[in-house]
Amino acid sequence: MSKQDWRKLDESDVRVRPGKGTRPRSKRRPEHADAETAMVIGVDRGRWTCAMESGAVVTAMRARELGRTPVVVGDQVGIVGDTSGQPDTLARIVRVEERTSVLRRTADDTDPFERVVVANASQLIMVVALLDPPPRTGFIDRCLVAAYAGGLEPVLCLTKSDLASADSLLALYTELDVPVIVTRFDEEPAALRARLTDTVSCLIGHSGVGKSTLVNKLVPDANRAVGVVSGVGKGRHTSTQAVALRLPEGGWVVDTPGIRSFGLAHITPDDIVKAFPDFAEAAEECPPGCGHLGAPEDPGCILGELVPDAPGRLTSLRRLLASKAGLDEHPE
């Protein structure tokens, strides 16, 4: 191009390509009115297995507009795309419905990061062996606290009753009115099966207590791995991920990995007291920041004075509060 031609050019001849950030963006998300409802039954490396109301089981990814919204087993979600459940198809989760209950835990009592174990379960089945491995009351208490705080009904399921009596353990929880189911290896868990029918229930327990054995009896095609108890009385982890399994009689049972500890860093003493209607109102009269443990930890606590007719329940409540505070002798 000659100098003369260059002189004829002005700024109107310059073509400026718009940058990526100049396009106006809308904050309105698509409504996805055509989304179908499903329940999350498994999670694996960024893919969610979902059971449709039609009965189909589909694999889905989380839609971009959800960002990092957590999606866990038990969540009710809205799904669009290919929901046929055919091999090599992939749908999208575009909505997570409000949860009715949440079971949360932390790695320990100082960990600020809480993990959602399962959503929307109506019952927490605490599976505890009466022997081999021996029962740990601190673990039961912590599960009770998490259930009460998360809106689940706790149920105590005692296994291996052919090896030891349940009487002494049950005496500790009489005042809490926790439903109890006692099972043994050589019998079908008929009472547990009836309790789980037509509900969404979560099974939790230490490794080696017989949880996977129960699941295999409840859901014959589950094929959950069964392990052995180590020489030091702690089981080996046989379930590695939480998964919801459909019960033949109707309903779902969520099998969770065996855990060694149950942190409660995300729960406050008042969260626990709220689960006891006879103490919840009285607790409002306690000093600010009261842990409701009584003397010497909380000398200003007046729960016992305001509700004098329930000494057994107060003792049980304070045992749960001590578990939350890390004062229990056997937290695991």
TrEMBL record:
Domain EngC GTPase residues, every copy: 119-260
Compositional bias segments (type: Basic and acidic residues): 1-16
Segments forming domain CP-type G: 110-262
SUPFAM superfamilies xref list: P-loop containing nucleoside triphosphate hydrolases
One Pfam family recorded for the sequence: RsgA_GTPase
Alphabetical keyword list: GTP-binding, Nucleotide-binding
Biased composition (Basic residues): 17-30
Region (Disordered): 1-34
Domain of life of the native organism: Bacteria
NCBIfam families: ribosome small subunit-dependent GTPase A
PANTHER family tied to this protein: SMALL RIBOSOMAL SUBUNIT BIOGENESIS GTPASE RSGA, SMALL RIBOSOMAL SUBUNIT BIOGENESIS GTPASE RSGA 1, MITOCHONDRIAL-RELATED
Full protein name: Ribosome small subunit-dependent GTPase A
Organism from which the protein derives: Lentzea miocenica
